[in-house]
C-alpha cells in the first residue's frame, strides 16, 4: 500500500525563500576583493538572487546549462549558487588553484556557457582566453566603478543585476535535476566531475543542519575558510540560510592575522577549514596572547586534524569538531562530536577521541571491506577500504563513463579510496589512503600524473611520487627516482620539465635518486614501503 502524502520536488531555491521568510536579520558579511566589508541580509540576498536569475535568463541561460564561477568566498558568489541552480542551470565552481591545463580541461569538459569571475582572476582569464571556447562569455563580479580595462569583452555583474527587478517565481522541475558541478582530482588522467542534484543538495543540507547543530543556529556567526569553489564550502552556503546562521566571508585574505581580525571584529563563533589554515590562526593567537572574541568552535576537515592542533584549541576553550567527507559525498560524511557520556572525561581522553574522524551522519552508511570485498567488523581493530552509501553520494561522474564504471562496487556502494577502521561506538579512523593522491594544504596532487610526466624526461628510468608528512601543508610530494644513466639528471632540470604541466605547488619538494624501487608481490612499486622509508625525510625548506 502506498502512503497518501504529497510529493513536492525538493528545490534549492526554497532554502533561500525559507531564509527570507524566517531569518530576516541573519546576514552574509563579506570582506570583498575590492577591499570593503559588505553586509547583506538573507531577504536582500534572496531578492538579488532573483534579479540575477532573471539576468541569466536574459543571457539565454536555461535548464541544464553549465555556468562557471571562479571566485573567492563572498556574497555575490553565494547569490550565484542560488540564481544559477534556481533556474535549473548548473553552478560549476572552478578551483583557481588548478593548473591552467586542468582549468582549460574542465571548462571544456563541462561545456560552460558563462564564466563569472572575481576581479582577482581577470589577468588569469585573459591569459587563458585564447584557448577557451569562443562562445564562452565572461562576467566580472563587481560594480561598474571597478570594471577593469581588458582586451576581453567583459560584462559587469552589478549592471546585469540592477537591470532586472526582483519579482520572479522560481520555476519547478524534477528534484533530480542537476544543480551543481565540482571537479575533483583523479588518481590519473583528468579531473572528474561530481554532479549534484536539487534532491541530493537539499537532503545534504538537512543532514548538515542536524549533525552540526551547535553552530548552525539563528544568530550564530560562522566563518567558512573552506572555499565555495571546494566542495560547496562543506554545505554551508545552504545549511546557514536554512538554519539562520550568519556567514562571515573572508574573501581572498586567509592568513592568520586577517582571519583573527575579521573573526574578532565580527565575533565569529565557529570557523570551518582545513588544518593548514588553522596553523596560521593558532600562531596569530599565540602572538597576540588572545583568541578572537566569541570564538568557540572550529570544524576541521579535508585532511586529518593533528592531535596537537586539537589539544591547542581545546585548551583555549574552542571546541574542535573533526569531520571527514569528500567531493563525491557533497561532502559531509562523518562529524566528531563526543557522546554526552564523555562530558566528564579528562581532556587527554577527549582529545584522543576527537583525533578520530567522527561518527557517521544520518543518511550516510559506512562499511569497511577486505581485499576480497568482504565486510569487516566495526571493532576498532580491523582496517579496510572505506565504502559509503547515501542520498548525497555520487552514483557516477559527469560525462565520464570510464570513471563511472569504476565508482561503485557490485552492491552499489561508492569506494572512497580511504583506508579506515570503525570502532564499536561508531568512530571512524582514517588510517591510510588507497588512492594515489597527495593532499597539500587541502588541495590534491596526483602522484601518478607527476610520475607519468617525470617519466617523459629522458634522464628518468623509473620513479614514484609519495606523500611525506609536512608540518604546514599536511603532506608534500617527494619523488624517489631511478636515473636512466650513471649520472642522474639535475633536480632543477626535472622540476622545470614538470613545471610545463603542473602548477608550482604541485611540484615535488625534493627528488631522491635510488638504484632500485621496492616492489610488491605483484611487481608494482610498493608505495607503502617507500612511505615508511621516507616518513622522516627532511624536505628542503
Ligand atoms: P576532497 O574531495 O578534496 O574533499 O577530498 C576528500 C578526501 O580528503 C577524503 O577521501 C580523504 O582522503 C581526505 N580527507 C577529508 N577529510 C579528512 C579527515 N578529516 N581526515 C583525513 N583525511 C581526510
Notes on the protein architecture:
The chain starts with 12 loop residues before the first helix and ends in an 8-residue tail after the last helix. Among the domains are: 12-203, ANL, N-terminal domain (Rossmann fold); 359-433, Luciferase, domain 3, CATH 2.30.38; 437-533, 2-Layer Sandwich (GMP Synthetase, Chain A, domain 3). The model has no long low-confidence stretch (mean pLDDT 95). The chain has 16 helices and 26 strands. By secondary structure, it is an alpha/beta fold. The protein binds adenosine monophosphate (AMP). Adenosine monophosphate (AMP) binds at residues 184, 231, 301-304, 322, 324, 326-327, 331, 357, 416-418, 430, 433, 439, 444. Adenosine monophosphate binds at residues 184, 231, 301-304, 322, 324, 326-327, 331, 357, 416-418, 430, 433, 439, 444.
Write the layout of secondary structure elements.
Layout: H1 13-22, E1 27-31, E2 37-41, H2 42-58, E3 66-70, H3 75-86, E4 90-93, H4 100-110, E5 114-117, H5 122-128, E6 137-140, E7 154-156, H6 157-162, E8 178-184, E9 192-197, H7 198-211, E10 221-224, H8 236-243, E11 246-249, H9 256-266, E12 270-273, H10 275-288, E13 297-300, H11 307-315, E14 319-322, E15 324-325, E16 332-335, H12 347-354, E17 359-360, E18 364-369, E19 384-390, H13 401-407, E20 414-422, E21 428-433, E22 437-440, E23 443-446, H14 447-455, E24 460-470, E25 474-483, H15 491-499, E26 510-513, H16 527-533
Parallel strand pairs: 1-11, 3-4, 3-5, 4-8, 5-6, 6-7, 10-11, 10-12, 12-13, 13-14, 25-26
Antiparallel strand pairs: 1-2, 8-9, 15-16, 16-17, 18-19, 19-20, 20-21, 22-23, 24-25
Helix pairs in contact: 1-2, 1-8, 2-3, 7-8, 9-10, 11-12
The protein binds adenosine monophosphate.
Amino acid at each position: 500500500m502506498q502512503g497518501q502524502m504529497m510529493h513536492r520536488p525538493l528545490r534549492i531555491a526554497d532554502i533561500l525563500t525559507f531564509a527570507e521568510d524566517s531569518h530576516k536579520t541573519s546576514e552574509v558579511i563579506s570582506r570583498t576583493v575590492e577591499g570593503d566589508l559588505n553586509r547583506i541580509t538573507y531577504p536582500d540576498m534572496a531578492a538579488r538572487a532573483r534579479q540575477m536569475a532573471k539576468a541569466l535568463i536574459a543571457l539565454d541561460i536555461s535548464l541544464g546549462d553549465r555556468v562557471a564561477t571562479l571566485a573567492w568566498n563572498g556574497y555575490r558568489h553565494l547569490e550565484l549558487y542560488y540564481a544559477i541552480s534556481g533556474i535549473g542551470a548548473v553552478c560549476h565552481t572552478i578551483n583557481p588553484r588548478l593548473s591552467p591545463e586542468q582549468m582549460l580541461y574542465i571548462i571544456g569538459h563541462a561545456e560552460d556557457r558563462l564564466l563569472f569571475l572575481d576581479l582577482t582572476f581577470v589577468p588569469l582569464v585573459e591569459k587563458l582566453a585564447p584557448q577557451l571556447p569562443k562562445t564562452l562569455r565572461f562576467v566580472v563580479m563587481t560594480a561598474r566603478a571597478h570594471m577593469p580595462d581588458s582586451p576581453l569583452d567583459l560584462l559587469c555583474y552589478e549592471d546585469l543585476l540592477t537591470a532586472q527587478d526582483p519579482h520572479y517565481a522560481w520555476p519547478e522541475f524534477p528534484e533530480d535535476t542537476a544543480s551543481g558541478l565540482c571537479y575533483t582530482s583523479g588518481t590519473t588522467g583528468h579531473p572528474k566531475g561530481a554532479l549534484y542534484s536539487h534532491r541530493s543538495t537539499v537532503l545534504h543540507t538537512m543532514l548538515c543542519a542536524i549533525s552540526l547543530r551547535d553552530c548552525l543556529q539563528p544568530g550564530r556567526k560562522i566563518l567558512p575558510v573552506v572555499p565555495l569553489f571546494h566542495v560547496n564550502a562543506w554545505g554551508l552556503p545552504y545549511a546557514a540560510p536554512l538554519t539562520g546562521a550568519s556567514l562571515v566571508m573572508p574573501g581572498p585574505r586567509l592568513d592568520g592575522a586577517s582571519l583573527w581580525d575579521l573573526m574578532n571584529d565580527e565575533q565569529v563563533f565557529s570557523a570551518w577549514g582545513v588544518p593548514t589554515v588553522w596553523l596560521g590562526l593558532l600562531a596569530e593567537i599565540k602572538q597576540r596572547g588572545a583568541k578572537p572574541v566569541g570564538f568557540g568552535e572550529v570544524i576541521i576537515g579535508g585532511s586529518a586534524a593533528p592531535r596537537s592542533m586539537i589539544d591547542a584549541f581545546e585548551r583555549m576553550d574552542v571546541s574542535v569538531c573533526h569531520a571527514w567527507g569528500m567531493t563525491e559525498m557533497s561532502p559531509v560524511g562523518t562529524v566528531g562530536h563526543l557522546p554526552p557520556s564523555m562530558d566528564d572525561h579528562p581532556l587527554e581522553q577527549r582529545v584522543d577521541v576527537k583525533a578520530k574522524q567522527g561518527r557517521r551522519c544520518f543518511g550516510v552508511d559506512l562499511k569497511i571491506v577486505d581485499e576480497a570485498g568482504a565486510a569487516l567488523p566495526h571493532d576498532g581493530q580491523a582496517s579496510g577500504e572505506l565504502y559509503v552509501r547515501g542520498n548525497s553520494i555520487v552514483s557516477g561522474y559527469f560525462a565520464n563513463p570510464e570513471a563511472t564504471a569504476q565508482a561503485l562496487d557490485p552492491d552499489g556502494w561508492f569506494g572512497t579510496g580511504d583506508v579506515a577502521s570503525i570502532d564499536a561506538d561508531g568512530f571512524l579512523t582514517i588510517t591510510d589512503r588507497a588512492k594515489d593522491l597527495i593532499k597539500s594544504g587541502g588541495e590534491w596532487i596526483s602522484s601518478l600524473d607527476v610520475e607519468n610526466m617525470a617519466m617523459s624526461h629522458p634522464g628518468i628510468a623509473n620513479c614514484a611520487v609519495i606523500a611525506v608528512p609536512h608540518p604546514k601543508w599536511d603532506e608534500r610530494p617527494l619523488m624517489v627516482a631511478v636515473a636512466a644513466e650513471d649520472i642522474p639528471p639535475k633536480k632543477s632540470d626535472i622540476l622545470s620539465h614538470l613545471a610545463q604541466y603542473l602548477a608550482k605547488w604541485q611540484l615535488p619538494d625534493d627528488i631522491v635518486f635510488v638504484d632500485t624501487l621496492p616492489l610488491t608481490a605483484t611487481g608494482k612499486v610498493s608505495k607503502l614501503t617507500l612511505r615508511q622509508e621516507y616518513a622522516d625525510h627532511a624536505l628542503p625548506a
